[in-house]
Amino acid sequence: MGHTSKFLKITAMFGFIFLYAPIVSLIIFSFNESKLVTVWGGFSTKWYGALFQDPQILQAAWVSLKIAFLSATIAVVIGTIGSFVLIRFKRFRTKSLLSMMITAPLVMPEVIIGLSLLLLFVAMQNLIGWPGGRGMLTIILAHSTFGAAYAAVVIQSRLVDMDLSIEEAAQDLGARPVRVFFDVTLPVIAPALVSGWLLAFTLSLDDLVIASFVSGPGASTLPMVIFSKVRLGVSPDVNALATIIIGLVSLGIIVAALQINRSKKQGADR
Amino acid sequence: MTESTSSIAQKPWADPNAEPFMQIKNVTKKFGSFTAVENVSLDIYKGEIFCLLGGSGCGKSTLLRMLSGFETPTSGQIIIDGQDQAGVAAYDRETNMMFQSYALFPHMSVEKNIAYGLKRAGLPKAEIATRVTDILSLVQMDSFAKRKPHQLSGGQRQRVALARALVKKPKLLMLDEPLGALDKKLREETQSELIKIQESLGVTFVVVTHDQEEAMTLSSRIGVMTEGEIVQVGTPHEIYEYPQNRFVADFVGSVNVFEGRIKEDGEDHVIVESRDTGSDIYVPHGISGVEGQKVAIAVRPEKIEIGKTELENVRNSISGTVDEISYMGNVTVYKVVLDSGKRVRVSRSNRIRSTEDALAWGDVVHLGWAGTAGVVVTS
Fold first, then answer.
1. Which among B105, B167, B177 is the top mutation candidate for probing chain A, defined by the most A β-carbons within 10 Å of its own β-carbon?
2. CB B45: neighbour CB atoms within 10 A?
3. Cys-Cys crosslink for B238: which of B208, B234, B263, B285, Cβ 3.0 to 4.6 Å?
């Protein structure tokens, strides 16, 4: 490798500062002693302590985790079935249309997704009485639908790379199609399932807009609580909370990236 | 030697009373308007290594996939060991396949890969273990039992794939380009090992390949395919020495083809007048043709003699100018241009090192071949 030019180095540095300065300052101020958010008053972890005393925040965090866990699981199941059918679909035109449709929620504005889901839930409640009112269930359903789109994209790319002849080999050795799926296909795409799940989990934890639309009383997610707190003025304990979330999300992304990398390596070895 | 090899040595295909082990009857496969396999009929006998030889897209793989149950024939019948295979799914067939990509399960160890088929058959654990150990030692992979496929070399994977396909003792083993992914040296070793293993187990093999050399060394018989049809079936010797048409002559080995018309159609010989050679060509066997009919004579490069002086003891003799010389070590290949402009390929084995009668570019040379060297190909 030759030397990277100075100009490039400086540009890259500015780029990263632009991206990360706000986050870094947030992390720094989460350790601020002072009650004033923008004035440094010495190092302290008291806001973290205060955070864990706040029942409202703890409650919201618990709700968020439950929603993220369940919706990510549902998303992966739907995403797997969807992408499996899509990849194995023989007719080309239908295939590309369906594959476009499954990825549409990725680019759809969240406000529209939230609004349309809210309308759907209300209409369903009027028609068939389910889901009864809005709350955790409706948030889980909403997050599952858009999480499934993300999971499907990740799983599809793994299925495309997969050598179909290993499924035929299993059949040739006497395994029926369902058996083939569980013995061969599923283990081979497992890394993609894990990274798809982590992606859906993270997205669900992050989401504010869709959750605000479809949630009801008693089911406030963490982002919703933070948002409402901030509207009344930024308090230092929100900084602490945000720092914890950043930590968790980065951890999730790192694990997901490692998984994707590993599955790619395995694919190359094969 | 096992019984099966001796029965193969008796050439069951030449015996009209012999019962074929597998019969393919008028099988056709269409994908939409495209016909991949057209009206193929074939009898394969127990213990054979039968090669389907042809270029890519000739339908050989489709035929193999129909035998293993991954494709259903559009029409026709496949009978294996007396059982009609219509409606029998791939997972219920007593055949196994070795895939071109080997198709090893990447998440399972060598051992588990091989045991998979036996487990599906519901065999007791103890028997699975002994059979896996036995087959591993047969393919000399004992010490690799715990490895994962990605920790193996290409040749080792090939062995595991073979072991996995053989361990169920299938009635018929299908091999799709079994040696395609190996380098030349390894191929040659593996080829002879494959034959040994086949002989010791007595399993009938159907091999698909595009490599004529592979087909020649492996098989008891070869079926040459092109455009979905089988154009000739025969032993490697028959295919090479007596190609029935121009495609086979050209596809298997290299060949010189001289165009001409029948000038004299005798009981025991034919004389063909050829503009390519500028002289008459003598063939010492009769053909069922009429005088004036267009025919072609195929002569293999190694059957043509070449020399600076007039050749003796040859029935057909022509002369030309050396245009190209390629020295390949064991043989030297000369391209000679005749007066008619026709280029003839002649190969001469380098039996002696001497350069006394060495030929050079531009030399005027005499070519000749025995009457029996040429074969008349009609289509």
1. B105
2. 22
3. B234
- Of A102-106, B111-115, B295-299, give the lowest mean pLDDT range: A102-106
The predicted complex's ipTM stands at: 0.83
Residue B57, amino acid: G
The closest CB to that of B150, out of A165, A175, A266, belongs to A266
CB contact under 8 A, B70 and A168: yes
> How far separated are the first and last CA of chain A, in Å rounded?
30
Taking Cα atoms as reference points, which of A39, A23, A13, A21 lies closest to residue A242? A23
Say if the Cβ atoms of A171 and B116 lie within 8 Å.
no
* Domain A54-269 part of CATH 1.10.3720.10: yes
Q: How far is A270 from chain B (nearest CA, A)?
A: 6
Q: How far is CA A173 from the centre of its chain?
A: 39
CB contacts, 8 Å: B90 with chain A: 168, 171-172
A39 to chain B, closest Cα gap in Å: 56
Distances (CA, A) of B274 to B95, B208, B244, B279, B322: 51, 38, 20, 6, 21
In the stretch 106-135 of chain A, residues with CB closer than 8 A to chain B read none
Show residues of chain A in contact with B121, CB under 8 Å. 174
pLDDT for B2 equals: 39
pLDDT band at B279 (very low <50, low <70, confident <90, very high): confident
Compute the count of residue pairs across chains A and B with CB atoms less than 8 Å apart. Answer: 72
For chain B, which domains are there?
3-94+170-249 (3.40.50.300), 254-377 (2.40.50.100)
Residue B174 phi, psi dihedral angles, 5° rounding: -105, 135
Evaluate whether A224 touches A67 at the Cβ level (below 8 Å): no
pLDDT at B354: 66
A175 close contact with B: CB closer than 8 A: yes
Q: What angle do CA A131, A133, A134 make, to 5 degrees?
A: 95
pLDDT given for residue B4 in this prediction: 43
Long-range contacts of B227-236 (CB under 8 A, 24+ apart): B227/B38, B227/B58, B227/B59, B228/B29, B228/B35, B228/B36, B228/B37, B228/B38, B228/B40, B228/B58, B228/B59, B229/B38, B229/B39, B229/B40, B229/B59, B230/B40, B230/B41, B230/B42, B233/B42, B235/B11
Q: Quick check: B291 and B332 in contact, CB under 8 A?
A: no
Give percent of chain A with pLDDT exceeding 70: 95
Residues of B in contact with A266 (CB under 8 A): 106, 150
Judged by CB atoms closer than 8 Å, whether chains meet at A266 and B106 is answered as yes
Share of chain A above pLDDT 90, in %: 37
Q: Measure the CA–CA gap between B114 and B168, rounded to whole angstroms.
A: 9
The full DSSP string for B93-158 is -SEEEE-TT----TTS-HHHHHHHHHHHTT--HHHHHHHHHHHHHHTT-GGGTT--GGGS-HHHHH
Q: Residue B330: pLDDT above 50?
A: yes
Average pLDDT of chain B is 88
- What are the residues whose beta carbons fall under 8 Å from the beta carbon of B218, sequence distance 6 or more? B49, B51, B191, B194, B195, B207, B209
Q: What is the pTM of this model?
A: 0.80
In chain A, the residue whose alpha carbon lies closest to the alpha carbon of B117 is A173
